[in-house]
Write a structure and sequence with these properties.
The chain contains 13 helices and six strands. The protein is α/β, with parallel strands linked by helices. It has a six-stranded parallel β-sheet with strand order 3-2-1-4-5-6, sandwiched between helices. Helix 2 crosses helix 12, helix 4 runs parallel beside helix 12 and helix 5 packs across helix 9. The chain is globular, with a radius of gyration of 21 Å.
Length: 348
């Protein structure tokens, strides 16, 4: 696997940042989470005047072999159909990117479709979907390395355009299944507690999904004699998920603000943190979704999400919805007067 040089946030500016926050013309601590966000962002960027320049959204698409086992209510063709829909501007992710000024990159990492005649999709296809992890590893180590590198290279493209903040979304029917297994493994949580409805399974569907994933996990445990974080990722992950991990690690390496979306992206974030614990310093967990177990997953890394709107769309839409709150925290630092300039008596 590609090596990353990810350091913990330098906290030497903490006192100076706190002094600026406390001297803004407001009661001390009165802007709550906005003050906490401002502190984190200023520390990430090592400045008293933070910037959210050129926000980018990476939408990564890939299909999953485990979908063949009927673990999702949606058929796999929905992946490629939605990818094409995104190029036409008709998805939820398109709407929110337009609303909040994010540049959207739609990337095919492993969709089971030929997009050669489709404009607007970046071709980084590794294969037409992963293998079925009920019977074998989803990908090889070489494919894993390639997916990590793809994510890293995408971040470099964003940085070249001046990006300081990015969000990540996914499109891949069946990807709640590997996310549930990672949640169980990384959080030491019974698998049954990690499985939800996904895109809309009923109770019988959830029961079937549990049976399939339980068998897959037992097969993995029997076949892998020295399990590791990398083996967990290669055996169960999707190409879009591994590429997302590569995005997170490269973005942390370059001190970008990383907006973490819902159930699937939180699973990827936990994996990234297991590989490089310092990567969490650069992450903002934007919302707690409506997928069963998402709160438990967030608790694995003691994350405090900004929103709880009952979202479970994916695509990175929850991260985009949270952007105005982050923007407000930055505007607070850059646009509010302090007591001295406003000629207001400081009363604490």
């Amino acid at each position: 696997m590609k090596e990353f040089n990810i350091s913990s946030i330098d906290r030497s500016m903490l006192a100076a940042i706190q002094e600026k926050i406390d001297n803004l013309n407001k009661p001390k601590g009165s802007l709550g989470r906005l003050e906490e966000l401002a502190m984190q962002i200023c520390l990430i960027q090592q400045t008293l005047e933070p910037s959210l320049a050129h926000p980018c959204h990476l939408l990564l698409g890939g299909d999953h072999g485990i979908e063949r086992e009927g673990v999702s209510v949606s058929p796999r063709e929905v992946t490629w159909q939605q990818m094409i829909n995104f190029t036409r501007g008709g998805g939820g992710v398109n709407m929110f990117c337009r609303q909040h000024g994010f540049k959207l990159r739609i990337v095919d990492v492993g969709v089971d479709c030929d997009f050669s005649d489709v404009d607007g999709i970046i071709d980084r296809k590794i294969a037409r979907g992963t293998k079925n992890f009920l019977y074998e590893p989803a990908m090889s180590e070489e494919e894993f390395d390639r997916a990590i590198q793809i994510g890293s290279d995408l971040v470099d493209d964003c940085i070249a355009e001046g990006c300081r903040i990015l969000s990540i979304g996914e499109m891949g029917i069946g990807n709640t299944s590997p996310s549930s297994i990672w949640m169980s493994i990384f959080g030491d949580i019974p698998l049954k507690n990690c499985i939800g409805a996904g895109a809309g399974l009923d109770n019988d569907g959830i029961r079937h999904k549990y049976e399939v994933l339980s068998k897959a996990l037992k097969n993995y445990q029997a076949s892998i004699h020295q399990p590791s974080t990398i083996s967990h990722l290669t055996y169960f992950g999707g190409f879009e998920m591994i590429s997302a991990i590569g995005v997170m690690l490269r973005a942390a390496e370059h001190h970008l603000i990383i907006l973490i979306d819902g159930f699937i992206m939180t699973a990827c974030a936990i994996a990234a943190i297991r590989l490089y614990p310092a990567a969490q310093d650069y992450m903002i967990f934007t919302h707690c979704g409506d997928e069963s177990g998402h709160k438990m997953m967030l608790d694995i890394v003691d994350a405090r999400p900004l929103l709880h709107l009952g979202l479970r769309l994916g695509e990175g839409t929850g991260a985009l919805c949270a952007f105005p709150i982050i923007d407000s925290a930055v505007r607070m630092m850059n646009e509010m007067n302090n007591f001295q300039k406003a000629r207001i008596t400081k009363y604490f």
